[in-house]
Amino acid sequence: MIAPSPSPVDPRLERIRTVLRCLLAVIYAFVGYVHLHSPGGFLAIMPAWVPYPDRVILITGLCEILGAIALMTKRLRYLAGIMLAAYAVCVFPANIKHALEGIAIGHTKLGWWYHGPRLLFQPVIIWWALFAGGITDWPLRTRKALNR
């Protein structure tokens, strides 16, 4: 999938987008690595209705790494933004289960000091992927760009 025709570029907006895209790619690549290297913690928070949870964790780890790589390419950036946003929606049930059931990961039980902000931040992660992929400029679009 190739991005739609670009609108006039605001250099400030593109600098912000580039920094956020690089940061998001690093985060997704790291979390993907953790999925592959230490899947046990993810198995613990996987909802029971997910079939083949061990394979799902492997696949999601690979998807995170590939999504991070694609986000850094011009050709695949747009698609990567959409797919990483969709991915963030799909993993939300695991985050909810983790919070509601207070599941300990590696002998550490995280409280609501962690889960509350984590759950509230999920929509930001979805927006972040869409912004990094060039799907949206909201809310950083300048007044000048809006008038074009």
TrEMBL record:
It is a multi-pass membrane protein. The keyword Nucleotide-binding does not apply. Signal peptide: none annotated. It is found in: Membrane. The chain crosses the membrane at residues 18-36, 56-72, 79-100, 120-140. Keywords: Membrane, Transmembrane, Transmembrane helix. GO terms for cellular component: membrane. This is DoxX family protein. It comes from Sphingomonas paeninsulae. The lineage of its organism: Bacteria, Pseudomonadati, Pseudomonadota, Alphaproteobacteria, Sphingomonadales.
